[in-house]
Amino acid sequence: MNILNYTLLDVFTTNQFGGNQLAVFYGEEDLSTEIMQRIARELNLSETVFIFTADSPSADKKLRIFTPQLELPMAGHPTIGAAYVLAEKEILKTEPGQNQWIFEEKVGNIPITVYRDHSRISKVEMKQPNPVFGEKIQDYERAASLLSLSIDDINMNFPIQTVSTGVPFLFIPIQSLAAIKRINFRSDVWEKYFSRNPHTTNIFTFTAETEEPESTVHSRMFAPAMGISEDPATGAASGPLGAYLVEHGVIPSNEDGKYFIRSEQGFEIGRPSYIDISIQKNGNDYKEVKIGGNCVIMGSGQLYIRSLK
User: Fold this and answer.
1) pLDDT (tens digit, 9 = 90+) per residue, 148-191?
2) 163, 41, 273, 106 alpha-carbon torsion, rounded to 10°
3) Helix axes 76-88, 235-247, angle to 10 degrees
């Protein structure tokens, strides 16, 4: 019998029962892909992350990330949560101030910054690959139908467009907070028109009207292909979201090319989350895309696995 230890935590929050739940397996056991996928399906959280010794001497750890349905090449809240657990358990040592690490993920090396304030981890930040802007969807009526909204609820001043920093998301701008709260995601429309194109399977909606005055946008994300009906906090989408907001002038332009954005998410499903996004541009070129936040450890557990293969 093999015993696998994991930590359960809430990511992108400073309050218990907020943010996005995550299980972090940190024992570095030799697990098969099939077993990791089955464990993620068993726990049935939006994502589960497994930490391993890095293949490259230039990296500190390797991560493999699974939803209940599939493995992801990169994801935000598992990356942030894994770093938080490694710091809190002192598996990787930290000093007061900024600590720089490198994680191997399927998209390549991901730079991590862990901020330690005396004995407390105050924030974890990840740098994402530069954004790739994909196709634009011209059918606003179909997008409205997908969300059970009227076409007047879609903000047609901005495009419906795919953006990716490792995982593609289709961004749909919504006119108001009232409209985004009325969204009722239609799986039948998604299955017929969106599910077969890998660039449109993950649906991210946002509005510039927010619940909190400190927030920049209010967001909701739907990913049935990942086995996620609605995600309370989506780090992999937040880097692309920040790039979209800057690229299309949803937020005011900034002469120094530095933008600081806060996305609030998860309110509609009772898990308020806050993701900080940092974008740096030089002219038309994106120089840096970062997302970050904090975590709360909720508990720990063990799984008893007969075979790791």
Assistant:
1) 999 999 999 999 999 999 999 999 999 999 999 999 999 999 99
2) -40
3) 120
Tens-place pLDDT, residues 49-90:
999 999 999 999 999 999 999 999 999 999 999 999 999 999
Asked if residues 108 and 95 have their Cβ atoms less than 8 Å apart, the reply is no
Query: Residue 132 corresponds to which tokens in the numbers above?
Result: 């790739």
How far apart CA 235 and CA 223 sit, in angstroms, is: 13
Catalytic residue among 28, 47, 268, 288: 47
- All residues at 6 or more sequence positions from 200 whose CB lies less than 8 Å from its CB, including other chains: 137, 162, 168, 170, 194
Rounded-to-integer distance, Cα 66 and Cα 305, Å: 18
Q: What is the model's pTM?
A: 0.92
Q: Is-catalytic flag, 47? A: yes
Please give the distance of CA 191 from its chain centroid, rounded to a whole number: 23
